[in-house]
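Collaborator request, handled under Task 6.
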Amino acid sequence: QVQLVESGGGLVQAGDSLRLSCAASGTYAMGWFRQAPGKEREFVAGISRNGGRVYYADSVKGRFTISRDNAKNTVYLQMNSLKPEDTAVYYCAAQSTGWVTFDPMTYSYWGQGTQVTVSS
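Structure tokens returned to the collaborator:
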């Protein structure tokens, strides 16, 4: 019943910016995750249902910003100062328990993923 639609990925050069969007069919605590080839899916950023609490992986603090517009049921990930090591498939996910967690296995609903590629 919960559907998530992602957009905004692409190919950019190091130092550039991208904004990812995730349109959801409801309002949930949300997380962004990424997975590079040969690596485990990892937590990137999360936001509480009302937007009052945000969380970031250490690797993206100061560069990425998560936000949401509940009127549109949309969550955003603004990615600045992109690095080649940010290259991955990025997924948004809805946390049905109502709070942000860092374990992807606790998220019940996932978008299809959007590719972000950062060249040197």
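The cover message to the collaborator said: "The chain has a mean pLDDT of 95. The longest strand covers residues 88-95. Please let us know whether this matches your experimental observations."
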